[in-house]
Amino acid sequence: DAMVIQNPRYQVTQFGKPVTLSCSQTLNHNVMYWYQQKSSQAPKLLFHYYDKDFNNEADTPDNFQSRRPNTSFCFLDIRSPGLGDAAMYLCATSRDREGSNEQFFGPGTRLTVL
Amino acid sequence: GEDVEQSLFLSVREGDSSVINCTYTDSSSTYLYWYKQEPGAGLQLLTYIFSNMDMKQDQRLTVLLNKKDKHLSLRIADTQTGDSAIYFCAERGNYGQNFVFGPGTRLSVLP
């Protein structure tokens, strides 16, 4: 059974055209994370939600926003995508924030910016 | 800021052991992780070690931690072609902060 689902798997958008990526989970986990992974690079944490509490990483650009309307869903909004935002976007969840809690990753959404 | 380093490539022959190394700079790291990423897929947690441990073994996987040198290694015994993937080392503090990944080591297993 799929536990962390990301839709779509591939997304194409135009330079400057807002785009939303979605993530859902069936694990009822408290924490949801969004990572950006550029080609041949490590995943980089953008932000995470602990329940409804939003936690932004210090160097995440303002162009990236997130919404978590309920426990199951979390969205990544890119307000004005640039060519440099083309990447794989990974969603992950964990039961809690303590380090012993495993993060479960979705398959990712690959974003192309034309 | 925190930094995690890994060698980028490793090739081994099927049946041999693989050792993937990682160094980190954050002395407050509480948990250290090894993730596996296959092409086009998300990350899969292989194992993790708490900072007060020196070693952890799980079937074919052995993790060694040298906290003094801030060095972490992953040994895969009897490496198989299905082990070909990118392996990421990652570290974090105790409550989710400072979760930092290394650049990943691409393991190629030759027949």
Which two chains touch over the largest interface? A-B, 25 and 22 residues
Which structural class matches the secondary elements of chain B? mainly beta
Biggest pleated sheet of chain B: 6 strands, mixed
Mean pLDDT of chain A: 92
Task: Please state the CA-atom Rg of chain B, rounded to the nearest Å.
Answer: 13 Å
Please write the string of helix (H) and strand (E) elements of chain A: EEEEEEEEEEE
Rounded to the nearest angstrom, the radius of gyration of chain A is 13 Å
Q: Could you explain how this protein is built, in words?
A:
The complex is a heterodimer of chains A (114) and B (111). In chain A, strand 4 and strand 5 form a beta hairpin. Helices cover 0% and strands 51% of the residues of chain A. Chain A has 114 residues and is mainly β. In chain A, strands 2, 4, 5, 6, 9, 10 and 11 form a 7-stranded mixed beta sheet that branches. A 4-stranded antiparallel beta sheet of chain A has the order 1-3-8-7, with no helix packed on it. Chain A starts with a strand and ends with a strand. Chain A contains no helices and 11 strands. By secondary structure, chain B is mostly beta strands. Helix content of chain B is 0%, strand content 56%. In chain B, the strands form 2 sheets. In chain B, strands 2, 4, 5, 9, 10 and 11 form a 6-stranded mixed beta sheet that branches. In chain B, a hairpin with a 4-residue loop joins strand 7 and strand 8. Chain B is globular. Chain B starts with a strand and ends with a strand. The model of chain B has no long low-confidence stretch (mean pLDDT 90). Classes of the chains: A mainly beta (114), B mainly beta (111). The interface between A and B is medium-sized, with 25 and 22 residues.
Topology summary:
The complex is a heterodimer of chains A (114) and B (111).
Chain A: E1 4-7, E2 10-13, E3 19-25, E4 31-37, E5 44-50, E6 53-56, E7 64-67, E8 73-78, E9 87-94, E10 104-105, E11 109-113
Parallel strand pairs in A: 2-11
Antiparallel strand pairs in A: 1-3, 3-8, 4-5, 4-9, 5-6, 7-8, 9-10, 9-11
Chain B: E1 4-6, E2 9-13, E3 18-24, E4 31-37, E5 43-50, E6 55-58, E7 61-66, E8 71-76, E9 85-92, E10 100-101, E11 105-110
Parallel strand pairs in B: 2-11
Antiparallel strand pairs in B: 1-3, 3-8, 4-5, 4-9, 6-7, 7-8, 9-10, 9-11
